[in-house]
């Protein structure tokens, strides 16, 4: 069949098979594995090689950060840490123009420094933020749109699971990637805040009227101090994680384990919310989420091996470089490809398929790999909120009981604002590199 279509290279056939399986709604991990196994058989390599490739790919020390960061975020959501943080930020910034919209943006930004996973962030903090925004007069779909967009940038705000994977693939310092992502992540949050004045609100109740509010009736100063005291141990989480990494006390991988132990300690001793049932549920949820990611990593190793053996990197990157001699044209094409790919695949899959092709182009162009990594993450974050496979949309639809079409419409204003943010990150590399230069 492929020969009749003029497709003779096994690597190109593999890509066609992969997208055909995706159209048939085969899970991404299995689509990667089956298409790669087909190509290996076509080339003539023994399939017993597949086991060695998979074992090699998933036994990298740096990948241990993924399941532990997922577990830490799950624990902090189930042990009441997220709820206390939302209460604090509601007191601290809820009185600003935009009310709970500003609170939701700040919490999403802050939770990104805890969870590192977009869907996990929607599930953990989405119900509380959406309920508060509804009480503050925002449309339910608009509130859901803010949450899915803010949670999407969890893969940009460090510690980011996406940046961990990029660092492994690109052989780039994960700590440097974390530092470089801070300012772009904050900037993307500011673009979200800029959308809030244009939202149609049915009413504008006072902050004290929102429920539940345990600080109602307190003087502002006392309410701020009490809410800060109640949420202190949760607020210290990103300080502990990021401070330890940047100070060189521990590596990002070790930080994931420390974050998990810290979450357990806070739940057991500070808030006394840890129970055997909650621990069991958190372990089950984190294990399921981690298994999905690690299955993709495992099968993507087979896919990547075929890409290298068939020299698809050389041919496709050469074709990309041949499009133009202008850097901005090539960069624009890469960004469009990432945005479109993100509409159909999750960020991890896109990275394992696209980065082996794009990284040689980035090196040829002389682009800083750290800046390029942050730009890739910002692009892929958008994929989490774009149909038909924007997984954050599906999680939010489940949380709100709204049709996914309404959630997607609610996210449109934030999507447009995010495109402005992407353009800024691409046009001003120093936005990503500024902190690295200051810390030298």
Automatic annotation (TrEMBL):
<dbReference type="GO" id="GO:0005886">
    <property type="term" value="C:plasma membrane"/>
</dbReference>
<comment type="subunit">
    <text>The complex comprises the extracytoplasmic solute receptor protein and the two transmembrane proteins.</text>
</comment>
<feature type="transmembrane region" description="Helical">
    <location>
        <begin position="255"/>
        <end position="274"/>
    </location>
</feature>
<keyword id="KW-1003">Cell membrane</keyword>
<keyword id="KW-0997">Cell inner membrane</keyword>
<feature type="transmembrane region" description="Helical">
    <location>
        <begin position="142"/>
        <end position="169"/>
    </location>
</feature>
<feature type="transmembrane region" description="Helical">
    <location>
        <begin position="370"/>
        <end position="391"/>
    </location>
</feature>
<dbReference type="Pfam" id="PF06808">
    <property type="entry name" value="DctM"/>
</dbReference>
<feature type="transmembrane region" description="Helical">
    <location>
        <begin position="15"/>
        <end position="40"/>
    </location>
</feature>
<feature type="domain" description="TRAP C4-dicarboxylate transport system permease DctM subunit">
    <location>
        <begin position="15"/>
        <end position="431"/>
    </location>
</feature>
<protein>
    <recommendedName>
        <fullName>TRAP transporter large permease protein</fullName>
    </recommendedName>
</protein>
<dbReference type="InterPro" id="IPR010656">
    <property type="entry name" value="DctM"/>
</dbReference>
<feature type="transmembrane region" description="Helical">
    <location>
        <begin position="175"/>
        <end position="199"/>
    </location>
</feature>
<comment type="function">
    <text>Part of the tripartite ATP-independent periplasmic (TRAP) transport system.</text>
</comment>
<feature type="transmembrane region" description="Helical">
    <location>
        <begin position="328"/>
        <end position="358"/>
    </location>
</feature>
<keyword id="KW-0812">Transmembrane</keyword>
<feature type="transmembrane region" description="Helical">
    <location>
        <begin position="411"/>
        <end position="436"/>
    </location>
</feature>
<keyword id="KW-0813">Transport</keyword>
<feature type="transmembrane region" description="Helical">
    <location>
        <begin position="61"/>
        <end position="82"/>
    </location>
</feature>
<dbReference type="InterPro" id="IPR004681">
    <property type="entry name" value="TRAP_DctM"/>
</dbReference>
<feature type="transmembrane region" description="Helical">
    <location>
        <begin position="286"/>
        <end position="308"/>
    </location>
</feature>
<keyword id="KW-0472">Membrane</keyword>
<dbReference type="GO" id="GO:0022857">
    <property type="term" value="F:transmembrane transporter activity"/>
</dbReference>
<keyword id="KW-1133">Transmembrane helix</keyword>
<comment type="similarity">
    <text>Belongs to the TRAP transporter large permease family.</text>
</comment>
<feature type="transmembrane region" description="Helical">
    <location>
        <begin position="232"/>
        <end position="249"/>
    </location>
</feature>
<feature type="transmembrane region" description="Helical">
    <location>
        <begin position="102"/>
        <end position="130"/>
    </location>
</feature>
